[in-house]
Amino acid sequence: MQLGFKTDPGNPWILRENAFNLKHLGKTEANMCLGNGYVGIRAVTEERYVNETRDTFIAGTFDKFNGEVTELPNLPDVVGLEVEVDGQTLDLNQGEVSNYQRTLDLKNGLLTRMFNWSYEQRTYRFTFERFVSMANLHLVVLRVTVTPTTADCVVKIKSGIDGQQTNNGSQHLIEGDKRLFDNHYMQLLTETNESKINFALSTCHEFETPDHRPVKQQMELGRRQIFCKYQESLKQDETLQLVKYNTLVSDRDIDFNGHNLEELQQFGLGLLKESSKRSFDELLAETATAWKRRVWNYGKVQLKSDDPDDQLAINFARYQLAISTPEHDSRMNIAAKGLTGEGYKGHAFWDTEIFMLPYYIFTKPAVAKQLVEYRYLGLAGAHQKAKDNHYEGAQFPWEAAWPSDGETTPKWGAADIVTGRAMKIWSGFIEQHITSDVAFGALEYVHASGDQQFALDKVDELILDAAKFWSSRLEFNEAADRYEIKDVIGPDEYKEHVNNNTFTNYTAKWTIETAIQIYEDLKVNHPEKFNELSERLELDRCYPVWQRRVDKIYLLEPNQDGVIPENDTYLSLKTVDISKYRHAEHVGGIFDDYNLEQVNQLQITKQSDVLLLLYLFEQKFATKEKQINWDYYEPKTTHDSSLSLSTHAILASDLRMTDSAYSFFQRACQIDIGPDMRSSNDGIHAASLGGIWNAVVFGFGGVRLLGKQLRIEPHLPKAWQQLSFEIFWQGQKLHLNIDQKQVTVATIDAQVPVSFTNQGHEYQLKGNESVVITL
User: Fold this and answer.
1) Under 8 Å CB-to-CB from 10, ≥6 apart: which residues?
2) What is the C-alpha separation between 118 and 125, in angstroms, rounded?
3) How far apart are CA 636 and CA 520, in angstroms?
4) Half-sphere exposure in the Cβ direction for 305 (13 Å, CA)
5) Segments making up each domain of the chain, as ranges
6) Which residues form the Glycoside hydrolase family 65 N-terminal domain (predicted)?
7) Catalytic residue chosen out of the listed positions 46, 191, 493, 634
């Protein structure tokens, strides 16, 4: 696999950069980002450079600026340092750099940068280390060592908290108090403009000097800044070590029990004082243990592959999901770019339900439950969106931020190459399949976990409310005696304002059918809950309407060749040669030649929503039908969506096209860590990373949730000698070990029997039983 980073075949946990390159800052900043689901900090260098994006985010702290849509504000920087040696400021564009290496250890989240820097015939050795604690969500720790190797020197370091940060020019923060406590602890307070969220950022520095000499210190205040300047004289080969401790807290934090700004100050300051009593190595060991306990002990995936980077790719995907997922708070969701960049403003999409939720459903069901609960908490915003559009029920926002915010999609986007004007972003208005996606993901969690109480408490209501929306959204075609859904965007966003998008219509029908089943079950088996929901949602009025309409929802039939039309007009559009766009170095190259309106009139697909439909509802379609539609749609797909490749990997695997499946899998792995050095400038692609796990476990591992039934039918690519992984099913842990000839399925301390099917045969295991199945 061709990657944009160096790797170690013997250690699939290390990403390495062997040369400093200003042109690649965005790529490395996002891919080597540090975080813990609460805070995310891009891997900017400590010293500043042109073209860097110095982002620090706290999950859920959304704010608006000057009428724009809400976004995560870029918080004051706590990792920046200015280092001066012998009067020369450290700058890798100056002088000579040798033995440069920057590594990210995925196993414990440690970012390390080492190099020798020579200037005017003097050489200095630098090491910078940094981690965001997985054990203490609020803690960020840095260690810096400086050693002159050719002569004595004077080292000056300027370090503190820098609030002069923006979101690409938009300033979300109001300056608050800045002060130094006990001549040692610095603190900066700030507040968001519109949402009025308060933050307290605190920092302190501990030095280790030769002979334990004291370091000279001078405090400096600036606008939105608080710094201290330190100075120390070193003899040749002596080392100065600085450990910088930082805490970040907000009054939105679920673990903050205070009520006012003074209590928030003390909350952050207290965390800092306690943490700074401990050494860097002690805190690093603690976070490594937390990584193992919270992340790596769940859903273990191990490969034996001809390409060792396959293992690194799945490790990287799981690392990024871990630092992007706010496990601590169900009021927050996974942003499309995680906490790694300003792309998509920190908003959540359907990406969560279709591409990332499955990972948590099968590895950490408690986290999956929280992600579903986030959507339940968003019902008020979904109700408001439906009402604003003159519909009933819950119409979920295409882009979601704080649960009650409702729709947060920007209205205008990039420039049209033909008109030169900003293009309207229609997704927030007419990309409506998100409502079905939310319902689908919620029910997937219930079926896989068996959490019927959560279904009663929240999921049933969510699906019923979604069905109310779809029923009100349907448009009756009297001449054809059917209900249609007009003027939408499906998952293929290269087709706007289409009628009867197959994915949208099919999933809307599924939502209403599911709501009917829930209504009937509640009425018979849970009358008290039924009465509560019926009164609130007017179910007795809705139910007969659903019954009358559901079977008349228009589903486009395959044509004479067996091809399912993507929408009313797709198959009648002109076809063009898109080979140069399918194999281009960067995605989106088609817009160098066409604008979106022109693409809308061609059989060109960003990602095939027909194929996605065949994957998600595979039991509804025959293998021959899947193959016909693959053969038709895949050649017309540019895969410009980062969501596309993993879906194609899974479906190709299902169709026993193992070479194609493996190729799509590796291409999916390359979206972020591949050779395109611009691919992650605005942040990583969280959904594609979830898709990598899906391709491994659902595609090659053959795991599939079919309604309430678990199916296991693996088919490994030729390059893999072995695949093993763990999943949860119905609250029980399963271990699967697969090679080219057989699969071993074992239960681990199962408290209740676990059943699954393979090639039509049902197997049942309990306790610590296992079964070996020949492939």
Assistant:
1) 308
2) 9
3) 43
4) 23
5) 69-85+102-252+262-292
6) 17-252
7) 493
- At 251-307, the pLDDT tens digits run 999 999 888 999 999 999 999 999 999 999 999 999 999 999 999 999 999 999 999
Query: For a pLDDT cut of 90, what percent of the chain falls above it?
Result: 91
Return the amino acid letter for 43: A
**E strands in 330-445:** 412-415, 422-424
Q: How far is residue 153 from each of residues 123, 144, 244, 358, 615, measured CA to CA in Å?
A: 10, 16, 22, 56, 64
* Alpha carbon separation from 147 to 110, 209, 504 (Å, rounded): 21, 11, 62
Residue 571: pLDDT band with limits 50, 70, 90: very high
693-to-79, 174, 369, 599, 736 alpha-carbon distances in Å = 32, 41, 19, 31, 15
Residue 413 burial class via C-beta count within 10 angstroms: exposed 0-12, middle 13-18, buried 19 and up: middle
Catalytic residue list contains 493: yes
DSSP 458: I
CA–CA dist 541, 521 (Å, integer): 17
The pLDDT of residue 608 is above 70: yes
Predicted local distance difference test score (pLDDT) of residue 257: 87
Cα dist from 80 to 166, 439, 448, 765, whole Å:
15, 43, 45, 55
Quickly state the pLDDT bin for 441 (edges 50, 70, 90): very high
pLDDT, one tens digit per residue, over 524-558 is: 999 999 999 999 999 999 999 999 999 999 999 99
Asked if residues 130 and 79 have their Cβ atoms less than 8 Å apart, the reply is yes
Q: Is 87 left (phi over 0), alpha (psi -120 to 50) or beta?
A: left
SS (H, E, C) 624-661: HHHHHHHHHHHHHECCCCCCHHHHHHHHHHHCCCHHHH
The model's confidence at residue 675, banded by pLDDT at 50, 70 and 90, is very high
User: What size, in residues, is the chain?
Assistant: 775
Residue 636 pLDDT greater than 90, yes or no: yes
For residue 54, give Cα distances in angstroms to 35, 166, 464: 14, 9, 44
Residue among 129, 74, 60, 145 at smallest CA distance from 331: 60
Give every CB contact of residue 739 below 8 A, 6+ residues apart in sequence: 716, 721, 722, 723
Burial class (CB in 10 A: 0-12, 13-18, 19+), 206: middle
What is the enclosing helix (H) or strand (E) of 116? strand 110-119
Give the whole-angstrom CA distance, residue 733 versus residue 735.
Answer: 7
Q: Topology of 69-85+102-252+262-292 in CATH?
A: Beta-galactosidase; Chain A, domain 5 (2.70.98)
Enter the tokens of residue 150.
């050719």
663-666's contacts with Cβ under 8 Å and 24+ in sequence apart are 664/695, 665/310, 665/692, 665/695, 665/696, 665/699, 665/700, 665/717, 666/1, 666/307, 666/310, 666/313
